[in-house]
């Protein structure tokens, strides 16, 4: 246990060096599905942050009681509970957004990012470290979603957060807000990240 | 020991170097990428002339935009990968011309530019340059703008009554047939005085250019044969069962991008199968997909999507049709 | 003697239920908390769903301007929902219809909720019919996932306004050449399938519930 990263290291690691999307390639389903606009992307990032934080804290609290062969069941149970809470809250207070996101909020249950953090960090380290890990990873996930959504919404609709930014003469690249645009943007941005990484070293 | 030294010494001393390479051992030194691309350009010439004759300035502008944009993106993207610049093999020019001929003349300038950048960048260079691409680059570019600017590329975009070009005042033959059941006369389709993408209107020009490519063996004959025979069979079947009253086969054959796509797009040696058997499978598959899309989908024309789908199947077809070496059970 | 006790203890420790005590406890706690969340938020979510439809009823029946004027003057329509059952050949079809009345109990019109297959996915819409059950008073698209830039123009006000004052007694026809006619609806260029789908849903709905509405009016 001595060589486990500290809380601060966990926090910093999650943002860029171990970015969930660009470095670990986790959580691809929401990354591709809801990044056609900044609003849904940010709602998704906040929901994931909430679920991840709660799941990490609960898992860390009960880490002493976990049996190895039953841990996945416990993780899934915990995650599913908080996802359901997030889903209900969105439906009650942000009804239109919850309709836009559709099945992708319930699908957070199978977002590998969260179960990965429970397994790697929260089930081994104390509550404080687990919480800071969750916050760091959530910021990293949010930044990644924002970067993809920004490119797609700007090119696809000429605006951000639904507010027009580019001149009206801008021809909307409709393909960018459709599924193919998600794959193209993610691929190109991943390529850029790897290229920058190669140049740095 | 001394004998061995003598032999190896002999080998090193003489000027004859021995290359060990797999077959084929006969190679035609003149058959280069550049010669092949020049052939394709000569084959495209009748189509270019016809498109300029029918669409006037619309065709000229679109051709200039696409060729320049393709060459510029080839230069930039290859530089980015720090590889030697490959502009002088003419492949970028060919992509540019094919792309321009597959676009509607009325498409705004940015459509051509974006399609060229996507075609060369995402369609070709990202995969490792010419010879490594999975999909036909020009069709990747066209598919991108087709979905991105659906309103500038859809059926209604072809019509431009104010341009002073007669052909552009009517719907494209396949759209007219699909939406209102009006069949364009076969002679018009053959000569090419109809509306459509720049290079696809004249069946005569496509046959002329395609014939030249087949004669020069730049394009293999199996793919066009496969596509055309499948389309003839399926459209004859549709004609008989749908009661279109004859003429349907020729209408399907000469209308739309079929001949253009068959000779100049589907025969791309990089993205089509290697073996003769594979080429037949590729051709038949593409022909069947074209007819399925034309008859049953929302799109009037299906050549582009059919070729792209069959491109994706090419590695698999190549694996299925590996020829058996002689003497192996 | 010792052997049997340790064996018993081992068997006790390996008991499936005992091993799963944590899972069971967590499931119990989480279940209770989820029930609490549902109890607290459930009514609000239901209200959201109803509100979404109800809010649009005055606009669809009276038109946007008249609806705004009405709400400015502090009045509101009395809206009652009812289910209209239509007998099809092999099955029964149910329509939710909202009956809108002015404060003096005069009938303002009806709004029917209907849905059907579009180009990409199901389209859900509200169609308004006047008190005489003769004309369409408005259209609102509740839910659609048509292609952005083409099919999603069915939600545009300009296109939807074509439906106002079209007859509800004869089926609507989609045209592509902007030709005028009492029942003509101009198709969105490049999105004929979406346009035809919307008109199809409306034609189906109006012809299904029309007879029931006419008989209600007479009562």
Automatic annotation (TrEMBL), chain A:
This is Electron transport complex protein RnfE. Signal peptide: none annotated. It comes from the Bacteria. The keyword Transmembrane helix applies. Keywords: Membrane, Translocase, Transmembrane, Transmembrane helix, Transport. Pfam families: Rnf-Nqr. It is a multi-pass membrane protein. The chain crosses the membrane at residues 41-62, 74-95, 101-120, 141-167, 173-196. Coiled coil: none annotated. GO terms for cellular component: endomembrane system; plasma membrane. Its main location: membrane. It is found in: Endomembrane system. InterPro entries: NqrDE/RnfAE. The keyword Membrane applies.
Automatic annotation (TrEMBL), chain B:
Its main location: membrane. The chain crosses the membrane at residues 36-54, 60-78, 85-103, 109-127, 139-159, 221-238, 244-266, 278-297. The keyword S-adenosyl-L-methionine does not apply. It is a multi-pass membrane protein. One of its GO terms (cellular component) is plasma membrane. Its cofactor is FMN. The keyword Membrane applies. Its EC number is 7.-.-.-. The modification FMN phosphoryl threonine is found at residue 172. It is found in: Cell membrane. One of its GO terms (biological process) is transmembrane transport. Keywords: Cell membrane, Electron transport, Flavoprotein, FMN, Membrane, Phosphoprotein, Translocase, Transmembrane, Transmembrane helix, Transport. The complex is composed of six subunits: RnfA, RnfB, RnfC, RnfD, RnfE and RnfG. Part of a membrane-bound complex that couples electron transfer with translocation of ions across the membrane. Belongs to the NqrB/RnfD family. HAMAP family: RsxD_RnfD (MF_00462). This is Ion-translocating oxidoreductase complex subunit D. It comes from Desulfocicer vacuolatum DSM 3385.
From TrEMBL, chain C:
PANTHER family: ION-TRANSLOCATING OXIDOREDUCTASE COMPLEX SUBUNIT G. The chain crosses the membrane at residues 20-41. This is Ion-translocating oxidoreductase complex subunit G. GO terms for biological process: electron transport chain. One of its GO terms (molecular function) is electron transfer activity. The gene is rnfG. Belongs to the RnfG family. It is an enzyme of class 7 (translocase). The modification FMN phosphoryl threonine is found at residue 192. The keyword Repeat does not apply. It comes from Desulfocicer vacuolatum DSM 3385.
